Amino acid sequence: MSNLFWLTDVQMDRLRPFFPRSHGKPRVDDRRVLSGIIFINRKGLRWCDAPREYGPPKTLYNRWKRWSDRGVFARMMEGLAAEGTEQKTIMIDATYLKAHRTASSLRVKKGGRGRLIGRTKGGLNTKLHAVTDATGRPIRFFMTAGEVSDYTGAAAMLSSLPASDWLIADRGYDADWFRDALKDKGIRACIPGRKSRGKVVRYDKRRYKRRNRIEIMFGRLKDWRRVATRYDRCPKVFLSAIALAATVLFWL
To answer: Which pairing describes strands 118-120 and 123-132: parallel, antiparallel, or unpaired?
Structure first.
């Protein structure tokens, strides 16, 4: 197949420091297996439909599941982001990711408790909260059920925000406690006020125009089929798919 994806030698050199150590029997060719994992996630294929050039599908799936459980793909993204990000200005936002029936068909209590899947007007969804640098490259991710507010995601990510001068967000993050928390961290808020506020909130409108970059980032992530539609029941595995897409798209 001419449209197969293959990691380059330079890309492998950047990823290799984050690989777990191999104990006992040497691992199967890392480049072939990782390239296959990326191809499957980007195309949204079943593991059994992996092109034969990538080797046995079971090998691909076992590596994907094992490394996802160990947080390897998340560490790849965070490690590469720490090396090259511009963090004087950061942005925060959230988006919905639709859950496929294979992820949301639960045999437990209705609503997907524990799997971070919730019911919204658009159906069953997971909400992805993200922090990016000034150019829209992702730095941090946090997942919640779809019905969880932006406030909850902001509160969860507050302690891990990088040192920066400005934070840009839409009016969904307009809350006094959030503004005060940012001020305590030495970060200036560029957040328009809610229409329900009695007093007009001043903000840098010129700087605020940059916020479309985080929306563009979400759009690019959703070009990957296994990100746009959640097939994985396990939240940790699904977050690995998101981190892997972000790594390939923005940090390699």
So the answer is: antiparallel
Residue 235 to residues 1, 39, 180, 183, 219, Cα–Cα distance (Å): 32, 20, 31, 32, 21
Residue 17 has pLDDT above 50, yes or no: yes
Task: pLDDT band for 112, please (50, 70, 90 cuts).
Answer: very low
Query: According to the model, what pLDDT value does residue 2 have?
Result: 61
Residue-wise pLDDT tens digits, 216-232: 999 999 999 999 999 99
Q: Encode pLDDT of 93-106 as tens digits.
A: 999 999 998 887 65
Q: Which residues pair with residue 140 across a beta bridge?
A: 131
Sign, Cα dihedral of 44, 50, 55, 58:
positive
Q: Are 81 and 137 in contact (CB under 8 A)?
A: yes
| Average pLDDT over all residues of the chain | 91
Nearest to 119 by CA among 92, 139, 148, 141: 148
Kindly write down the DSSP assignment for every residue of 189-234, as one continuous string: EE-PPPTT-SSPPP--HHHHGGGHHHHHHHHHHTTSHHHHEE--SS
Instruction: Identify the structural domains of the chain with CATH numbers, from first to last.
Output: 9-70 (no CATH), 86-232 (3.30.420.10)
Distance CA(130)–CA(81), nearest Å, equals 13
Q: Contact, 148 vs 128, CB < 8 A?
A: no
Nearest Cα to 33, choosing from 66, 49, 55?
A: 55
Tokens coding 130: 């993200």
What is the model's pTM?
0.91
